[in-house]
TrEMBL record:
UniProtKB keywords: DNA damage, DNA repair
Record protein name field: DNA-3-methyladenine glycosylase II
EC number assigned by the record: 3.2.2.21
Domain HhH-GPD: 120-273
Lineage: Bacteria, Bacillati, Actinomycetota, Actinomycetes, Pseudonocardiales
Enzyme class name: hydrolase
Length: 292
C-alpha cells in the first residue's frame, strides 16, 4: 500500500477543498470515516485515496490507480491554485476570504467521474440527483480497492451496457440519460479537456452546456473563472449578497466582471460564508422517475 506525506506551504482547509467531490449524503464513492476517502477512475485503473491531516497531510492509496492518485495529491489539494492573485472588490467577499484562508480550488486531473455526476445534476433538485448517483453507483460501480466498502463510479463502458429498465430503476429521465450516453461514447476523448483546460471541448457533446462544463472545470482543473451560469440558486444568491436584491445571470455576471479571471472564486467565497438569499417561495418537490 503506497503512502505519501506532504506538508502544504499554505493554509489548507482539507475538508472544504475535498468536500466539493462529495455528491450528497450516502455518496457510495466518498466517506469521511477517519479521514477523507474517495474512490475514482484513473488512467491506470480504479483507485482509492485516504487523506488525513496531522502536522502534515498523510495519504494512503489502494488499487491500480493508487499511485496515480498519490502523485496528484498536491494539485488535488490546491497547490496549483492561483489564489494569491485574487483581489476582492466587495467588502463581503474580502471578509469571507479573510475568515477562510485555507479555502482553495483543487484539481483532480480527470473528467469522467465529475462529468457523470454533473450530468445527473442537470435541471433537477439536488435530492433527485444525489439519489440517482447513489443508485447507479451502488448497482453498477465496481467495489473500490482498499479496506472501506466504497464503490468506484461506473465507467463509460458499464453505463453503455445498461438496459432501459436498469436506467429506469435508478430514476433517470430520458434527457439526462441521452446526455450521459453521448458523453460515455466519447469519454476517452473528453479526458483531454483537463489537460487543455478546455470547457469548449466538453460543450461539443450534445446536452452539455455552460453549467455542466463549469461544474467539471471547477473540480477537474481548478478553474477559478468557471461560474455555474444557469444554476437555479447561484445568480440569485450572488446578486442578493452583493446588492441586497436577487437578480438573474446577466446581473450576476455584470457584478462579477471585475473579478476576471477568478469570477468563480468570488462566488465560492460567498457560498462558503453562507450568503444565501431569504427563501419565501415553496421549495421544489423532487420527482421520482421510477414511479412514472
Amino acid at each position: 500500500m503506497p503512502r505519501r506525506s506532504w506538508t502544504p506551504p499554505f493554509p489548507l482547509d482539507l475538508g472544504a477543498v475535498l468536500g466539493t467531490l462529495r455528491r450528497g449524503p450516502g455518496d457510495p464513492s466518498f466517506s469521511t470515516e477517519g479521514g477523507v476517502w474517495f474512490a475514482a477512475n484513473t488512467p491506470c485503473g480504479p483507485g482509492t485515496l485516504r487523506v488525513r491531516r496531522t502536522d502534515a497531510v498523510e495519504a494512503e492509496a489502494w488499487g491500480e490507480g493508487g499511485q496515480w492518485l498519490l502523485d496528484g495529491l498536491p494539485a488535488l489539494l490546491g497547490a496549483d491554485d492561483p489564489v494569491d492573485e485574487f483581489v476582492a472588490h466587495h467588502p463581503v467577499i474580502a471578509e469571507a476570504r479573510r475568515q477562510r484562508p485555507g479555502l482553495r480550488l483543487g484539481a483532480t486531473g480527470r473528467v469522467w467521474d465529475l462529468l457523470f455526476a454533473s450530468i445527473l445534476e442537470q435541471k433537477v433538485t439536488g435530492k433527485e440527483a444525489f439519489r440517482t448517483w447513489r443508485e447507479l453507483g451502488r448497482r453498477f460501480g465496481e467495489p473500490a480497492p482498499g479496506p472501506l466498502a466504497l464503490k468506484v463510479p461506473p465507467t463509460p463502458g458499464r453505463l453503455l451496457s445498461l438496459q432501459d429498465w436498469e436506467w429506469h430503476q435508478c430514476g433517470l429521465d430520458g434527457a439526462r440519460r441521452r446526455t450521459l450516453i453521448n458523453a460515455a461514447q466519447v469519454a476517452h476523448r473528453l479526458e483531454k479537456a483537463a489537460e487543455m483546460r478546455s470547457r469548449e471541448l466538453l460543450e461539443k457533446v450534445p446536452g452539455i452546456g455552460v453549467w455542466t462544463s463549469a461544474e467539471v472545470a471547477q473540480r477537474s482543473w481548478g478553474d477559478p473563472d468557471a461560474v455555474s451560469v444557469g444554476d437555479y440558486h447561484v445568480a440569485k444568491n450572488v446578486t442578493w449578497a452583493l446588492t441586497g436584491t436577487p437578480g438573474d445571470d446577466d446581473a450576476m455576471m455584470a457584478l462579477l466582471e471585475p473579478y476576471k479571471p477568478q469570477r468563480h472564486r468570488a462566488v465560492m467565497y460567498l457560498e462558503a460564508a453562507g450568503m444565501r438569499r431569504p427563501r419565501r417561495a415553496p421549495r421544489f418537490s423532487p420527482r421520482d422517475y421510477r414511479k412514472l
